[in-house]
Amino acid sequence: MMRIIQYFLPILLFLFSLNCNNKKSEEKNEDLVFHLLLDAYMNGSNVPCVSTQTVPLEPIGTWTVGGNPFFYSETLPISLHRSLPMVQLFFEQNNTFGGALFPVFYENRSISSSGFLNRDVFSGLGQGSSTSMFPYGKDTAYATDPAVSILNTDSISSPLGVEFNLEIPVSLSATFISSCKTLDSDEMEFQTNHADSADSGLYHFWQTEKNLDVNLIFVNNGPDLAYPDQTLTALSVALNRWKENYSQGPVRININFSSTTLDSVEYSSIYDLSTSFIFPGTLGGLFTTTSYVGKPNALNVFIVKEELQYGGVLGVSGGIPGPATLLGTRQSGVAVFIETHRLTSNTGQPLTHDELLLLGETMSHEAGHFLGLWHVVEAFGDTGEVGSRDPLRDTPVCGIWNDLNQDGFLSVLECSGFGPYDSGGRNMMFWSGMVGFAQGQITAEQGWILRLNPLVY
Ligand SMILES: [Zn+2]
Known about the structure:
Blueprint: E1 2-5, E2 50-56, E3 59-65, E4 68-73, E5 76-78, E6 86-93, E7 100-106, E8 115-116, E9 126-127, E10 129-134, E11 160-166, E12 172-179, H1 185-189, E13 210-220, H2 236-247, E14 253-263, E15 269-270, H3 283-289, E16 299-304, E17 306-307, E18 313-317, E19 334-337, H4 353-370, E20 432-433, H5 444-452
Parallel strand pairs: 1-20, 13-14, 13-16, 15-17, 16-19
Antiparallel strand pairs: 1-18, 2-12, 3-4, 4-11, 5-11, 6-10, 6-12, 7-8, 7-9, 7-11, 18-19
Helix pairs in contact: 2-4
InterPro entries: MetalloPept_cat_dom_sf
GO molecular function: metallopeptidase activity
């Protein structure tokens, strides 16, 4: 979920291989009646329409994942239809360390063998908290294992259910965050196809323009400023690049910016980019302790001077997706790092024009993660596995055979071909970026996901 500058070699996430066939589903209580309490605010179309419900969870049994025992909760129903077209799940343990956890979806609550895993599970388990969402693509069969097809365009919901799985059965809650903005007719009728070129999906045009509010938070430490000039004007080259990217036909989201400052000794430099820990200097700590500067109806972007864990990370999102409207969780926000964007400018100076353009691409990219987009292809290339690429059909990807210098990673230049399997380097959600290389391409299916996010109105 982080964006990395080109010369930086990432530490790859350990991929968990889950085997859900071991599960004793018949032990679960399938009859639980779960009432989704709507606390939606529907004051016209100039604010997001979101309903949230937080429920405590009790483990009711155990099963084995990769040889390790996991507890599981009862199955909770999910509503997904044209007037509740997207749901996010935020699953949290209220303790300092937490254990591994993940959600598992069920296609049909009356069929105990219909369990399937969502895209998020294939990139590793959450620690202390976890997010998931549905749908991850127009064609859900492309995002799940085993493949299932779930529609969000019907007038009533199919009997979707979810249960929650975790290592340490204490202090658990799950929050359901639903968008209650009814699908536009063209969003409802939208069809997608497999990419057949690098240009696939780039020429769509949605009928209506939507809005996203963004709250920029400059994280300063007294006179040590994250950026020397903290006006929107000073960042206009970056902010305009982001607006241009999202204003394209396949997206059509207008961005409204506001800004504020945070004076913090503890978070002007980030030493640990994980959200597992909430100590000073960690990303999880930044997000959990600074909710007073956040806006619940906006995407909160922390502008931080530097990260010192790797030194090459441009930005990082609290999750894929981040929990919309929830402030003060381990995953509540996006951070971008000014120093990583420098090529010729010096610390303390404004960024150059090209460096600001890269900052705009980073903001677009991290916002894409927070709103639910994965990398079109992960750093090691498309292997055909669910976890090696995004769950969308119309995005071009890049196979590992394009790794011409054989360093094990696919660079933007190695993925700048013209076909569906040798490109993606120009896409906003490519895993790495570099100064002077535009990456503003966004496909219609990516735009469809962005437009359905609960924060978009
Ligand atoms: Zn990324």
